[in-house]
Amino acid sequence: MRIAFAWALTTLIFLAGAAFGSPLLVFFDLPSLLLVVLAGLGLSLVGAPLAQHLAALRLGLGDGSLDSARAAAARATLRGQALAVLVAGGIGNVIGIVAMLSALSDPSAIGPALAVSLLTLLYSLLWCGMVVWPLDASIARRVQLSSGGVPSTPGASDGPVVGAAVVCFLAAQGATVSGLLAALGSPVT
Fold first, then answer.
1. Core vs surface per residue 146-177: b (16+ CB within 10 A) or e
2. What is the C-alpha separation between 96 and 90, in angstroms, rounded?
3. What is the pLDDT of residue 150?
4. Per-residue pLDDT reduced to its tens digit, 9-35
């Protein structure tokens, strides 16, 4: 129940923030969504079978105590899924940048290519930040509670992973803007 409330609240905040700048429909791009979902799923299945991924998601949504062996397997599966989805988002970003740079002679094609570039990263970060990492933190919290320990800060051990995702996102956006400006003949500073 706590996770559902947190997801609903976070989703409302994101939707409200997105709606201030433009209609929400601009944040939906089917090619970007398919790229992240299908490539992320494919990369995830390299590490674990689909049944294991579904079991990890169900375990994260559950309640009650957990044994550490099942929890460790579920957390490893979720972390592998997060990495796969982030890689898919990064690949989608590069695909969008290449498509954008190859279409510089046609200004009407730059926008859709840039949308693919940005939205694949957005979708991968949203999946990790709103689904995978909260479920991982929920499992860790339940294991600590069932062993009599005091739960630590959720996601505290994920700092390097989250930091790497943010750095990749910012670097990709800097490369996108710099490449676009250079291709259009503007001085890049």
1. eeeeeeeeeeeebeebeeebeebbeebeeebe
2. 10
3. 59
4. 777 777 776 667 677 777 888 888 898
